[in-house]
Structure formats: structure tokens, C-alpha cells
Amino acid sequence: MSTVALVGPPNSGKTTLFNWLTGRKQRVVNYPGSTVDLAMGMSLPHLAPNHAPIQFVDTPGTYSLFAKSQDEEVTSLTLFGGRYPIRKIAVVIDSTQISRQIHLVKQLQEAGFAVVVALTMCDLHEKEGSRVDSALLERELGTPVVAINGVLGGGVKDLVAKLADLPEPQVAIERLQPWSAEKLHSVFDEGEKLARRVGKHDLKVFNSTRGIDRVLLHPFFGLVFFFIIMFTLFTAIYWAAQPIMQLVDAAFALAATGVKQLIGNGPVSGAISDFLGDGVIAGVGAVMVFVPQIFILFFGISLLEDTGYLARAATLVDRPLSLVGLNGKAFVPLLSGFACAVPAIMAARSINSQKERWLATFIIPFMTCSARLPVYALLLAFLFWGKPLLGGICLAALYFGGLVVGLVASGLLNLIVKAKTPSFFLLELPLYRRPKLMVVFRNSLRRTKAYITKTAPIILALSVALWVLTNFPHIRSQDPQTRLEQSWVSAIGRRIEPVFAPMGVDWRVGVGLISAFAARETFVSSMAVLFNATSSVAANGGNEDSLRVSLIDRMRNAKMPNGAPVFTFASVAALLVFFMLALQCLSTTSVAYREMRSSRFAILQLVSMNVLAYVCAVGTYWVLSR
Amino acid sequence: MTRLSDTSRQRPSPDETFTIIDLSAESVVRERLLELGLAPGRSVQVLKICPFGGPIVVRAGSLSLALRRDEADHIWLGE
Predict the structure, then answer these.
(1) How many pairs of residues across A and B have Cβ atoms under 8 Å apart?
(2) Whose C-alpha in A473, A512, A567, A589 is 20 to 30 A from the C-alpha of A73?
(3) Between B26, B47, B62, which is nearest A422 by CB?
(4) Are both A119 and A260 inside the same structural domain?
(5) Is B33 in Cβ contact with A315 (below 8 Å)?
């Protein structure tokens, strides 16, 4: 079976074309030894009715075959590494940028590949009554050229046919020797002349883009718009997702109760239904409840990316981020970190310098992810019951605190970490375009799926493990309180109590903190189990608010063995500080390990963040309890 | 002859055209600039200068590019 690689510069519309070629059936593969994903997929059957289907691989955007960053290295590896026998290439060229991009076509031809040029963004010419002379381009390049309409999918079928009919190259394919500056210069000159003959070179869309940039990159108004756009995205992530999240939550609660009723409550069946309801279904629910938020995050980012705004945002924040060793491209990963660290770390791939990617990945978990929110809500409600304004201020302070600590950490690490490759910041600002909603929707769907497959197994396994530990060995006992008091988890908890004592809390909170490693919000539900707040509430469907009220009530009355209250102002404040700084999320650690290809990195991050959190929490308790 | 980064003080109008005379950047950055079309002999316009020492946005033909002052230090311009 023949594999065709899609190769093209960033922003050339490669991924859009890939989606038209392969539809929804795509799989993501990781090129061995690299941290960048490649998407692969078969051509849709209706595109090649008379030919055998073609396997397509979408490569990371590259300006030339001489790689200058990690993701570009993956493209050369894919083409020359020998893992996939690639002989034919569809090179994706933006028809508004022909003069600058034609050298990529020439490099691929020189390396020996059989090439078909897919010319994108032709609609921008057509809108202005001009036409792209692809026949002329075809003659000049000596290879087929197909005009693609990214919005409607026109030309895609033609592209597949041309690729299928294209004879395999007769020569051996070899990695190119770098071009000299003179050669590049003369190819550019030729490209410029050719571009003028192929189509209009001073399209109005260039002027309108510059006009928009006069506002969106303005020293003052540019920042105003930046904050409005980011505030809108943030609001959508938190508020628009709320009702859907509640729906998902309710659905899983209903499923859990349904399963319990279905299986019954006998001595054995009760244990099984408990396991399925509280272990498995609750575990899956813990992942799924954040899916609406993650999807909205991806949708918003893809939308901004598709319009071309994201490059401007990165330009605007480059300077402040450069002060702590990051660059403008770290902006999206850090922003995503406020929803969830897992997609954020995945997004850090787009940072093409190694050191900056390292720093950004390291500090992402300091951003206040949405899994911390239920915990903050509980603890702040305990501290400031009936004083919502004070609680709100504290919540903002926690968000801000995490961000500040993260940036300071990056600044400090920047002084220690050595860069292996030189870092530079050259960012192309693409033309502003009307976003293609279908493409944006599909991309966000694909990324959401990747999020689920990365987090679900870990959270599910830990949730099942936690259930086993809290219910065994006295699984047959009918009283949940005894089951818990004599469970393995309480045995472990009592043994490690000295660790948590300096934070001013007892073993039950310690167990809650450990359980939070499955997912932070698990803290709330395990606290409910540990302080026996669920029994009355779970019966009527487990409404979150009533659960919180009943739990806060239990927390107020919780006593240490010596009669002192467990939850004081000092100990709850210490817990808040702990949650703000701790990396209590094994999904994050596992993704960080996989993305950075380094267990050392993952362990360093896990240990240092948690040690920092512990020390700060103990310090907080010590200061406040004097 | 001035550096591109010096334009942050002169604040030229976006219509003013400069010619690139030389690139003194080290190999990787230099090569990438050439690949983007910022080569000696080509003309550029300075579209935007981000405040507080932020990136400079230039236009060269169909390209709009944001680059840091560090990179702009190595691009030498003439009128």
C-alpha cells in the first residue's frame, strides 16, 4: 500500500486538506523517538472510486527540508527516516504565498519525490475576481497542480486521482544537502517572477489584514482586545460549560443509582453494585464531567487559530513571557492550563524551542485547573460561610497565586536549565480569515478524544483502587462507617498521620489528599466518605450543594482524638495553599512523562511541586496557628 | 546603515521601505530568515513595534513576521 505524505509550511491549510481527504477515520501515531504526533488516515472511498485507497500522513508544518525545530525534525524523519516508505508527496502551498513557498516544492523534487502540488486559499483570489493560473504553474514546475477549496472540499477528488496516476519516482530518495544562500536566493527570485504570472500578487486581503492588525496589535487597543477575547474564552470555559457539566454529573449519578438498584443489595450483590457504582461509574464520571469544558477550550483555541488571531496574541504576550524564559508560543499552553493541565501539556508541543517547551510544561500544573475548583469551593465555603464576597476575593487570590508562583518558578529554572538548541522567536502572522466552523469543530473533537484516551485509564484505575482500599477487608459489613474505619485505607492513613500533622489535620484528611492524586476533585467525594456525609445525601441523588452543606456541617464537628477541632482557619488555609501548589494528578504526570520522553522530568516535577506545596502549607499553618 | 531593532526608536511609518543589506545572525536563525524571504537585497516595511521591548512586526512581500529585538539586531537595513 502506498503512503502519501502531506507536507507544507505552517498555516498553509494542510490539516484542513487532510480532514477532507480522510474524513473522521484518523489515527494518531507517534514517530519513534519524537514527541510530536503524526495523524494518519485512509482516503475516503468516494474520493478514489477507480483506485486503491491511499494512506495519508499529515506531517508537522515546515518551511524547508532543513529542520530547525523539533516538529520540523519530525517531518524530515517521516520523509527520510524509512519507517514509512514514502515516495509520493502532496505538497500544500498557499496560493497567496507562492513566491515564498515554491522552494519547498523544489526541495522535495530535488530529493527525488514524486510531487503533486495542492494549491490552497484559492478562494481568496476568486473573491477578488482574480484567478490562479494553475496550468501555468503546472508547466513551470513540471508536476501536477490541483487547486483545493478548503471550505467546500473542491479539488480533493482530483488530487487523489492525480496522486494515484502519478508514476513512482525512478530514482533513490535521499536526504538533501543544505542549500547555499545563493541557491535559495535564486529560487526565491524565480518564485517571485512565477508568482506574478500565476496570480495577482497585491490582493486586497493583505491590506485588510494590515488594517485589522493596526487595531489588534495596537500598543493600547491591542491589549484591550486581547483581554476581552481571553475573558470571553475564559467565561465560556467556566460558565457556559456549567449546565452541561451538571447534566453529565447527574447522568452518571443516575447511572450509578440505576446499577445499584438493578443488581440489588444482597451481601454479595451489594458489594458488586457498590463496586460498579462507586468505583467504576464514578471513576468514568470523574473524567467525563470535564469533557464539556475541555471541548469548549479546544473549540475556542481552534477558532482563534483558524482566524489567525492566535499568532497575534502570541506576539503581544511574548515580551512579558520572555522575562521568565518563555516565549509567546507558551501562551496557549498556559491558558489551557486553567482548564486542565493534560491538554495544556499536549498543546506545549507547538513551542518549537526545547528549553521553552521544558519550562512551560514544568509550570503548567501551577495554573489553577478546573479540577481544583470543587475543592476550593468546599474549603472556601467552610472558611467564609455567608460571606461570598470574601470567598470570591480569596478564590481570585488563589488563581493569581498559582500563576505568580508558576512564573517565578519558570524564571528561576530559566537560570538553571541549559538550552540544547538555540532558541529564536520568529512568528509568521497569517492572513485573517473567516473560520471554517466544520473544520474547527472536527479538530476540537479530535483533540477532546485524545484527552479522554490519555486520562481515562489512569483515573479509572485509581478510582477502582481507591474503592478497594476504602472497602476492604470488611466488605461484608453493612455499616459503611465500620467498613471505612477498619479499611486498608485507614490503616495506611493512621500510619502516615505524622506526615500530615504539621499541616494541622488528621489521618482522614491525609487520606483525602492522597486520594486526590486520582483527580483533585476526588478530594471532595472522599472527604464525604471519610467524614460520613454521604449516607443521607446519596439517597436523594447526590445533589452537590446539599452534599457540600452536609459535609461542611460534619467538618465543623470533626474532632481530633484529643478533642481539638480538625478544621480550623489555619488548617483549612494550609489545605488551600497545598491545593494551589501541589501536583496531585497522576494523569498530568503520565502525560508530562510521555510528552517529554523523560521519567526524570516527570519525577522532578512531581516531587518538587509537592514538596513545595507541603512546605508552604506547613508554613501557612504554623504562621496562622500562632 | 541601521539595525532593524533601531527602528524601535525611529518609529518609521509603515509605508517607508528599507532594503536588507546584511544578516549577521548565527547560522540557524540566518538560514531561517533566508527561507522566509528576508534576504539581503529584499525590501521590508516596519508595520508595528510592540511596547516595552516586545517583538517588531515586519512585512516583506506577502509575509508578515513578528521577530524579537534579539533577532532584529542582526538584520542590517539601508534606505
Answers:
(1) 114
(2) A589
(3) B26
(4) no
(5) no
* Shared-domain flag, residues A350 and A244: yes
- Helix locations, A323-387, DSSP H: 331-337, 341-347, 354-363, 372-383
Res. A540: pLDDT tops 60: no
Report the distance separating Cα A119 and Cα A140, nearest Å: 14
Structural domains of chain B in order of their starting residue, each with its CATH number: 2-78 (2.30.30.90)
DSSP structure class, residue B39:
-
How many domains in chain A? 3
Q: Which set of grid coordinates corresponds to residue A347?
A: 498543546
The identity of residue A309, as a single letter, is Y
Q: Are A332 and A349 in contact (CB under 8 A)?
A: no
pLDDT tens digits for A157-202? 999 999 999 988 888 888 888 888 889 889 988 998 999 888 887 7
* CB within 8 Å of A142: residues ≥ 6 apart: A109
CB A55 within 8 A of CB A2: yes
A142: left (phi over 0), alpha (psi -120 to 50) or beta: left
What is the largest distance, in Å, between two alpha-carbon atoms of chain B?
A: 31
- Cα A321 to Cα A129: distance, rounded to the nearest angstrom: 43
Whether B71 sits inside 8 A of A219 (CB atoms) is: no
Reported ipTM: the value is 0.94
Residues forming beta bridges with residue B46, ordered by sequence position: B58
| 3-state SS class at A83 | coil
What pTM value is reported for the model? Answer: 0.83
Q: Choose, out of A11, A63, A315, A317, the residue to mutate when testing the contact with B (most B CBs < 10 Å).
A: A315
The whole-angstrom separation of Cα A260 and Cα A272 is 9
Please say whether the beta carbons of B23 and B33 come within 8 A: yes
Q: With beta carbons less than 8 A apart as the criterion, state whether A554 and A527 touch.
A: no
Task: Judge contact between A475 and A272, C-beta under 8 A.
Answer: no
| Cell 511596547 found at | B51
The contacts of residue A39 (CB under 8 Å, 6+ apart) are A15, A18, A26, A27, A28, A29, A57, A58
In this structure, the answer to whether residues A278 and A151 fall within a common structural domain is: no
